[in-house]
């Protein structure tokens, strides 16, 4: 399974939006500056995320983007799939034709991994990512340990 730049940048941009959102919309130019993501690329991503119900746009002077839902209602899976990112560890995209037109002997393994990855991404909300960022701004690794610890204890919902 490989997450492309599209998925990574979408999650990064939405987390930036969540961290910087106030009463006023956040401009893509501001996200672009903070995250070093091209403005034109962000425009493409946000267009897809708007259609996917992740963000809403405000036009005109002082316009920009706001989240369309509460942090707890947006999952990492939602963000990634909104930008048409495919999450699939199989070589055959689930078609069972990767070994001389037939099913490979490890197909069930890759399908199982797909389910685990999707379940994990579905369990992580934007609220969890925001909380992890605020846990220890000096030590970013602690944010991942925080999330994984809560997930392994079955307490991810309580983490926020």
Notable traits:
160 residues, mainly alpha, two-stranded antiparallel sheet, 7 helices, elongated
Description of the molecule:
It contains 7 helices and 2 strands; from the N terminus they run αααββαααα. Helix 1 (5-20) crosses helix 2 (28-35). The chain is elongated. The protein has helices spanning 5-20, 28-35, 39-51, 76-82, 107-123, 126-135, 141-152, and strands at 55-58, 64-67. It has a two-stranded antiparallel ribbon with strand order 1-2. The longest helix has 17 residues, at 107-123. The chain is mainly α and 160 residues long.
Give the helix/strand layout:
Blueprint: H1 5-20, H2 28-35, H3 39-51, E1 55-58, E2 64-67, H4 76-82, H5 107-123, H6 126-135, H7 141-152
Antiparallel strand pairs: 1-2
